[in-house]
Design a protein that fits this description.
The protein is of the alpha+beta class and 147 residues long. Helix content is 31%, strand content 22%. Among the domains are: 55 residues, no CATH class; 46 residues, no CATH class. Strands 1-2-3 form a 3-stranded antiparallel beta sheet. A 3-stranded antiparallel beta sheet has the order 4-5-6, with no helix packed on it.
Length: 147
């Protein structure tokens, strides 16, 4: 790299490959003052910053940075979601109603005790009448929320 004469606030520099580059003097002076560099170091820094030359240390850091994978939370994470175990609250009234229906279901014509099955405790009963399958689902509704 060879400095050439100034032309209107810019310095012309010839690179090793013969290419002429214009560097603003104020940028060189700014680097000399703020970074406490020599003129040659400031010129070299400007050429590296503007991709005319390669800084080996910076190239190594760039390669290292490219290998790092950063998750920004945009995609789904492969971990399984841990769900809280659901606690089903069954009222005493619902239990009593379920037991009453279960006890008295065989009083119906065509329903026999061996054809009655509890599918879900305090919730679902299945029975067979004349070859047809029926299910009785007991659902307790919540009271409306107060505003």
């Amino acid at each position: 790299m060879k400095p050439r004469p100034k032309i209107g606030g810019v310095m012309l520099y010839t690179l090793d490959n013969g290419k002429v580059v214009t560097i603003p003097d104020d940028e060189i002076e700014n680097s000399i003052i703020k970074l406490e560099l020599s003129r040659n170091e400031a010129i070299h820094l400007w050429l590296e910053d503007n991709d005319y030359e390669e800084n080996e240390e910076q190239a190594l850091l760039d390669e290292k940075a490219k290998k790092v994978k950063i998750q920004h939370g945009a995609g789904a994470i492969d971990k399984e979601k841990v769900r809280k175990e659901r606690i089903v609250k069954v009222s005493d009234e619902k239990k009593e109603l379920f037991e009453s229906i279960l006890k008295n279901l065989d009083r119906t014509d065509g329903v026999y005790r061996e054809d009655i099955t509890v599918l879900k405790e305090n919730k679902l009963i299945s029975c067979v009448i004349n070859g047809k399958i029926f299910k009785i689902d007991i659902i307790e509704t919540r009271p409306p929320k107060k505003k």
